[in-house]
């Protein structure tokens, strides 16, 4: 398991290469190019962070923290700011202990996200991750309106070696959840993961559907621990942040799965999401294989981001 984690970290380092080139090389040239810490120095740094998809609000917090530390510690050399900046980014992402409580309880996990972000794939990978950890997992195929979503999830269930509860395409998602909850209870599953729709363009319908699903789980499985994860595509940068905000309006989001972090220049969005929304990024995806979804560790992420070649 430790070996797998090491392999994942080295792939994360590789996957963040474009983001690193985008943000870190720009920063390093500022640290080495300026001979004094002045307004121009701060402005250049600020611009680099914003361009790296950390977002204006997060960047302002980081810069404020940096200015304060420079003053308090009487720092004169620009190069000495590098570690301070790294520490400040880590602080922005530190929301206390990332909660994976659902793994230790009988739980129901709803996974939502718009088409194309890798939602169904993430459900399958998460099932594989939990199964490897010795958990009994059942999948509920409640994204019944997207063509081929059920077949895709069935394929992932087979890959992960877990059971799936599904109905016909176009059937009522709440009915699928009802069946899935009944199966989870009778088969004593540890975790029921439900792939649900994410039609953000029709927010009212989505809200009603999620309410109905939640009512069924509350009624039929009152003792289950609840988790709602939203899947976001890391390559979309600030758009992912606005998607997360919209989902927060329709559901009680407890965590983020950030996909497609490999090969994107917008990896800084992971910092912005945690800092601005106060919702932890719980898992990151960096590839197509079943093991390419792992728990997110902000310290490791920042280290990977700033690792020098």
Q: How would you describe this structure to a colleague?
A:
The protein has 309 residues and is an alpha/beta fold. It has two domains: 2-93, SRP54, nucleotide-binding domain (Four Helix Bundle (Hemerythrin (Met), subunit A)); 101-253, P-loop containing nucleotide triphosphate hydrolases (Rossmann fold), CATH 3.40.50.300. Helices cover 54% and strands 13% of the residues. The chain has twelve helices and eight strands. The chain has helices at residues 2-15, 17-33, 39-54, 56-72, 81-93, 119-132, 149-160, 173-186, 203-220, 238-250, 269-277, 298-306; strands at residues 107-112, 137-141, 163-165, 191-195, 225-233, 255-259, 281-285, 293-295. The chain has an eight-stranded mixed beta sheet, sandwiched between helices. β2, α7 and β3 (163-165) form a beta-alpha-beta unit. α6 (119-132) packs parallel to α7. The radius of gyration is 21 Å and the shape is elongated. The mean pLDDT is 89.
């Amino acid at each position: 398991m430790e070996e797998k984690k090491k392999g994942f970290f080295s792939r994360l380092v590789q996957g963040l290469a474009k983001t690193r080139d985008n943000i870190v090389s720009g920063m390093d040239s500022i640290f080495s190019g300026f001979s004094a810490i002045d307004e121009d120095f701060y402005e250049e740094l600020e611009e680099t962070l914003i361009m790296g998809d950390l977002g204006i609000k997060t960047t302002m917090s980081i810069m404020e923290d940096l200015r304060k530390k420079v003053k308090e510690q009487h720092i004169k050399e620009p190069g000495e700011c590098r570690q301070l900046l790294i520490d400040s980014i880590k602080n922005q992402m530190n929301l206390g202990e990332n909660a994976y409580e659902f793994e230790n309880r009988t739980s129901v996990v709803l996974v939502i996200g718009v088409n194309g972000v890798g939602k169904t794939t993430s459900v399958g990978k998460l099932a594989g991750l939990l199964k490897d950890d010795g958990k009994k997992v059942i999948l509920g195929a409640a994204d019944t309106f997207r063509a081929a979503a059920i077949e895709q999830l069935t394929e992932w269930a087979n890959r992960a070696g877990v059971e799936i509860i599904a109905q016909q395409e176009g059937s009522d998602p709440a009915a699928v959840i009802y069946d899935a909850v009944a199966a989870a209870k009778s088969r004593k599953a540890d975790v029921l993961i439900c792939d649900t729709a994410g039609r953000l363009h029709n927010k009212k319908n989505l809200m009603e559907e999620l309410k109905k699903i939640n009512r069924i789980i509350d009624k039929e499985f009152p003792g289950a621990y609840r988790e709602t994860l939203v899947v976001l595509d890391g390559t979309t940068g600030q758009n992912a942040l606005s998607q997360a905000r919209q989902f927060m309006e329709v559901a009680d989001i407890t965590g983020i799965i950030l996909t497609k972090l490999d090969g994107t220049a917008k990896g800084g969005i992971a910092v912005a999401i945690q800092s601005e929304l106060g919702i932890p990024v719980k898992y990151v995806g960096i590839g197509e294989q079943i093991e390419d979804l792992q728990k997110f560790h902000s310290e490791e992420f920042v280290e990977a981001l700033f690792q020098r070649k």
